[in-house]
Q: What sequence folds into this?
């Protein structure tokens, strides 16, 4: 006769499989060899045929526990062989990578782990990645975030689902507490490996697990695990709702570029302080910057300072107030570009498309179409043309003006911020600048009554918001 506990446990898990639509899916399981991942793997193998699952195992040997790490790897490889499942193993020197990337060992290991999972899921077309986080993990995370000084997102704990572009991370054991999982694994007589560091209370998570939570359970709430797990779920739902509403209007005053985000200072100042805080927190998280309260408050204070004031967010990013915009940008030197156009044609980048071609001599109305389209005297232009980024010391003769002017001064007069200056193409012919693309033609190549042939230059900026 089948054990009632096992039947109910597996039936509960099966209901989550249906809820998350596992049927006919290709699934990558993250398996450490610990009791939670063993339970997860066994549950999936039990349902493999019934739900037509295509299963694959992934294991990361972080090389942090010497012989134990090797033991865990061999155990997982043996498990995969036992279940006749393909397995991918990554052996990595986490301590070495930590010296390069900085951050805590846990953060670096987590980044390594998820990068590996994403890569393998993409390679083998796995629609779902499963990890074995349980209800206790969720409670511990909530408490640690609370003690650290977290907002509503931190109090949301570990989400059931993380949607990615090509696959989805799901944590189906978050509805099971650790005692339930241990009981199931023991009744099934499954084997697992123990991480000896999990018992060391010098680590904050382990202290929370072995000391703090039992103390709260004994003196305040015997069901503290379930209570805080439910709290995390409610917080997560509220967080999703709030972020959805914020994202509906954030595009009106936030411009996202590869090397910087710009935020309209005046539009940001109009909204409630709590919304300002969430907007900045979301932006910092997107840029992989830890959104501490001190940092967010410093950014809000920056809004009241004078133009040009800067603030160091971390070793990679800085914030600067410039002409009504708060810029959060990389500290690295802006990209320098240079392209050679040997004949008529186009240059296309992620930011713009610049085209040059022969054209009929335009009418007066055509000449007034706008700065993004300019006509020049083809007799004064010879190929190849150089399309490059602005350099200090560049000089040109602005159309309609007498004499030459430094492009840097021209930019200052137009109040163009530095990050835009570095992206504006300069068109050069025979070592002389003939067009500051999208802004001003050089007077020396203008069309006159004597012009016989003309050339049309056109610049199109992608997603440009000025």
A:
């Amino acid at each position: 006769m089948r054990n009632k506990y096992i039947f109910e446990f597996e039936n509960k898990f099966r209901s989550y499989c249906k809820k998350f639509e596992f049927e006919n899916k290709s699934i990558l399981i993250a398996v450490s060899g610990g009791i939670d991942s063993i339970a997860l793997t066994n549950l999936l193998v039990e349902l493999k045929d019934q739900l037509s699952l295509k299963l694959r195992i992934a294991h990361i040997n972080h090389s942090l526990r010497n012989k134990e790490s090797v033991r865990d790897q061999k155990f997982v490889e043996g498990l995969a062989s036992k279940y006749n499942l393909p397995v991918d193993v990554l052996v990595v020197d986490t301590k070495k990578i930590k010296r390069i990337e900085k951050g805590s060992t846990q953060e670096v290991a987590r980044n390594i782990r998820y990068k590996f999972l994403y890569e393998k899921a993409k390679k083998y077309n796995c629609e779902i990645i499963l990890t074995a986080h349980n209800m206790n993990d969720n409670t511990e995370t909530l408490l640690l975030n609370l003690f650290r000084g977290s907002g509503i997102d931190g109090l949301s704990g570990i989400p059931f689902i993380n949607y990615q572009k090509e696959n989805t991370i799901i944590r189906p054991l978050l509805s099971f507490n650790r005692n339930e999982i241990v009981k199931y694994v023991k009744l099934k007589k499954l084997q697992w490996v123990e991480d000896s560091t999990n018992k060391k209370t010098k680590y904050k998570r382990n202290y929370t697990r072995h000391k703090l939570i039992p103390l709260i359970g004994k003196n305040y709430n015997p069901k503290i695990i379930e209570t805080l797990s439910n709290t995390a779920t409610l917080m997560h739902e509220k967080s999703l709702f709030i972020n959805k509403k914020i994202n509906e209007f954030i595009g009106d005053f936030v411009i996202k570029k590869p090397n910087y985000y710009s935020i309209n200072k005046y539009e940001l100042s109009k909204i409630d302080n709590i919304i300002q805080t969430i907007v900045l927190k979301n932006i910092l998280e997107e840029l992989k910057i830890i959104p501490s309260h001190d940092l967010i408050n410093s950014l809000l204070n920056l809004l009241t300072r004078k133009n040009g004031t800067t603030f160091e967010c971390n070793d990679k990013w800085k914030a600067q107030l410039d002409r009504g915009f708060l810029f959060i940008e990389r500290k690295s030197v802006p990209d320098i570009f240079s392209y050679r156009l040997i004949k008529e044609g186009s240059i296309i980048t992620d930011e713009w498309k610049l085209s040059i071609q022969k054209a009929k001599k335009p009418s007066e109305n055509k000449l007034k179409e706008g700065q993004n389209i300019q006509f020049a005297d083809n007799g004064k232009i010879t190929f190849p043309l150089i399309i490059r980024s602005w350099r200090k010391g560049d000089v040109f003769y602005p159309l309609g003006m007498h004499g030459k002017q430094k492009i840097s001064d021209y930019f200052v007069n137009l109040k163009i911020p530095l990050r835009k200056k570095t992206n504006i193409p300069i068109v050069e012919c025979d070592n002389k600048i003939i067009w500051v693309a999208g802004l001003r033609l050089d007077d020396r190549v203008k069309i006159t009554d004597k012009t016989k042939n003309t050339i049309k230059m056109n610049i199109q900026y992608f997603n440009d918001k000025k």
Summary: The first strand starts at residue 26 and ends at 30. The mean pLDDT is 90.
